Amino acid sequence: MNSDADRIKLRVIRAGIDTYQQPVVYMHRDCEVCRSEGFAALTRVSMRIDHRELIATLNVVVSDLLPHDAVALSEAAWNAIQPEPDAMATFHHPEPPRSAGALRAKVFGQRLEESDYLALMQDTVQQRLSDIELAAFVTACAGERLDHGETTALTRAMIAVGDRLDWGEGPVLDKHCVGGLPGNRTTPIIVAIVAALGYRIPKTSSRAITSPAGTADTMEVMAPVELGLAAMRRVVEREGGCVVWGGNVRLSPADDVLIRVERPLDFDSDGQLVASILSKKVAAGSNHVLIDMPVGPTAKVRSAAAADSLTGRLAGTAAALGLRIAVNRTDGRQPVGYGIGPALEAMDVLKVLRGDADAPADLRERAIALTGELLDLVPGNVIGRGQALAEQTLVSGRAFAKFMAICNAQGGFTEPQPARFRADVSSQRGGVVVAIDNRRLAKVAKLAGAPVSPAAGLVSRLRIGDRVNAGEPVFSVHAQSKGELEYALDYARSCAIFDLQDIGS
């Protein structure tokens, strides 16, 4: 084998291409490295710059866009290896991943041990597994193919390959929503109430991948969320709580990679969902966790049977990890709050915290109920008293004051701004709302530009049981461009989002 000194070197340039979290390198098909190493499109390659190594996927350029003596790096690859100006790189075939045997065994239906999952997660975070291999792993674990023991093993492995926070003695609280419900943005309100009461709640949240807004997207409209571990710790030590983007603190980096593969596949796997949720809670140093589980026909958890199965798996894995959790099943039949989209959801959050008369009642009530359940988990607290304490803290203004303090500690508060363009969507007939399709409603918000355009989305106040007349507006679409507005309106007018029953029938 040739040493790096003997290998052909390519000068490193930045491609300026976003490949999300997947490191990709681009070479011309006629460059000496491609020919001498026998590289082809989608080959996994090991790139070295000095003593730094990165495993990446090769894309081959066939035009003259890229010189033969250069390699171009995607944004993910560039940020991972951070080359100096005029850097030169060498390339070779990487060693086979150590977890290849375990991956193959799982694909063929075998049960894996904790050491197997650790090897798989180590190779995952070190980019030694391609997206094709990761997709095979995700598929092999889908459905009910992970038993309780394997779920716990996978969770432990995810924790082991990331950073982990330690807040010392005492309760450290957290809350997580299983998801699938537009506008269900209770987290910033819960964090503000809990921190105002003197508890620690270091909340790491995700960005949207397939939804119109994640909690991190909504919070980012009001305050910076891309904090590192040290900055996150300073905020929590100063104010008791935070709401930051989990992808920047690497508390469960393997989960971030798996989510990238899982979401386009749209597989439902209780085992991986439990590992995803609980690995991040343990890594964040939390020991008392409330799980919000919306259940409804167009939510992520669609039936009572599915909720029972997921609850049992969450409880069993949490017990094995030493976590105290409670699972609160909530109404997943319809959206929560008025706004769907980062800025519009942020406006709802602020209305609740400020106590505005036009604040969405369902968001306020749900946030108070969930906070009460979380407070009831704390040792020494009287069970059933948490909800009253949460409401008192919100009504008094202490929660809003704490929220503003957290925003300032994270880098400063910004008032959400409305979108440039908006238009109403009217009902084509009259009736009583008997069902709402959450997924189609979310799609309208995404077509309007959310979450890429934070101000985009929609506002809907219609709920199950409400009466609507023909020609009456049922929601308004908000967008930053006329093109996106029309695109969302075309879709909204072509599908049935609200199931109406004739009045009197």
TrEMBL record:
<dbReference type="Pfam" id="PF02885">
    <property type="entry name" value="Glycos_trans_3N"/>
</dbReference>
<dbReference type="GO" id="GO:0004645">
    <property type="term" value="F:1,4-alpha-oligoglucan phosphorylase activity"/>
</dbReference>
<dbReference type="GO" id="GO:0006213">
    <property type="term" value="P:pyrimidine nucleoside metabolic process"/>
</dbReference>
<dbReference type="InterPro" id="IPR035902">
    <property type="entry name" value="Nuc_phospho_transferase"/>
</dbReference>
<dbReference type="GO" id="GO:0006206">
    <property type="term" value="P:pyrimidine nucleobase metabolic process"/>
</dbReference>
<dbReference type="InterPro" id="IPR028579">
    <property type="entry name" value="Thym_Pase_Put"/>
</dbReference>
<comment type="similarity">
    <text>Belongs to the thymidine/pyrimidine-nucleoside phosphorylase family. Type 2 subfamily.</text>
</comment>
<dbReference type="GO" id="GO:0009032">
    <property type="term" value="F:thymidine phosphorylase activity"/>
</dbReference>
<dbReference type="Pfam" id="PF07831">
    <property type="entry name" value="PYNP_C"/>
</dbReference>
<dbReference type="InterPro" id="IPR000053">
    <property type="entry name" value="Thymidine/pyrmidine_PPase"/>
</dbReference>
<dbReference type="InterPro" id="IPR017459">
    <property type="entry name" value="Glycosyl_Trfase_fam3_N_dom"/>
</dbReference>
<feature type="domain" description="Pyrimidine nucleoside phosphorylase C-terminal">
    <location>
        <begin position="432"/>
        <end position="499"/>
    </location>
</feature>
<protein>
    <recommendedName>
        <fullName>Putative thymidine phosphorylase</fullName>
        <ecNumber>2.4.2.4</ecNumber>
    </recommendedName>
</protein>
<dbReference type="InterPro" id="IPR013102">
    <property type="entry name" value="PYNP_C"/>
</dbReference>
<keyword id="KW-0808">Transferase</keyword>
<dbReference type="GO" id="GO:0005829">
    <property type="term" value="C:cytosol"/>
</dbReference>
<dbReference type="InterPro" id="IPR013466">
    <property type="entry name" value="Thymidine/AMP_Pase"/>
</dbReference>
<dbReference type="InterPro" id="IPR036566">
    <property type="entry name" value="PYNP-like_C_sf"/>
</dbReference>
<dbReference type="Pfam" id="PF00591">
    <property type="entry name" value="Glycos_transf_3"/>
</dbReference>
<keyword id="KW-0328">Glycosyltransferase</keyword>
<dbReference type="InterPro" id="IPR036320">
    <property type="entry name" value="Glycosyl_Trfase_fam3_N_dom_sf"/>
</dbReference>
<dbReference type="InterPro" id="IPR000312">
    <property type="entry name" value="Glycosyl_Trfase_fam3"/>
</dbReference>
<dbReference type="InterPro" id="IPR017872">
    <property type="entry name" value="Pyrmidine_PPase_CS"/>
</dbReference>
